[in-house]
Amino acid sequence: MSPNSQQDQVSSLSSSAPTVYTLPEHIFEIVSDSGEGAQKCGQSFGAVSAKMGNGAWTVEIIPAEIQPPARSSGGASGVRIRIGTEKVTNWGNKTKLVIAFNEQVLLARHRQDAMADNATILIEDMWETHDDPKIRQQWAEAMEELTASKDYRIVKVPMEIECLKIVDNPRRGKNMFALGLMSWIYTRDVEKVKAQIAMQFRHKSQDVYDRNVRLLEAGMKWASEHMKFQIHVPTKEVTEDLVVMNGNTALAMGAVVSGLELCSMYPITPATSVSHYLSEIYDDLGGVVHQAEDEIAAIGVAVGASYAGKVAFTVTSGPGMALKTEFIGLAVMTETPLVIVDVQRGGPSTGLPTKVEQSDLLSTLYGMPGDSPKVVLAPSTLEECFHCMITARRIAEAFRCVVVVLTDANLATGVQPFTRPVLDAGWHAPELDLSPLPEGSRPMDWDPETGLSPRIIPGQKGGEFTATGLAHDQNSCVSYDPAMNQHSSEMRSRKLAVLQSTLTPPEVCGPESGDLLLVGWGSTRGAIEEAAEKSRANGLSVSSVNLTFLSPLEPGITEILKRFKKVLAIEINYSDDPNAPYITEENRRRGQLTMLLRSTTLVDIDCWTRVLGQPLSPGDIIEAVEKKLSEETKA
Question: Using CA atoms in the order 183, 38, 274, 200, what is the torsion angle rounded to 10 degrees?
Answer without folding.
Answer: -50
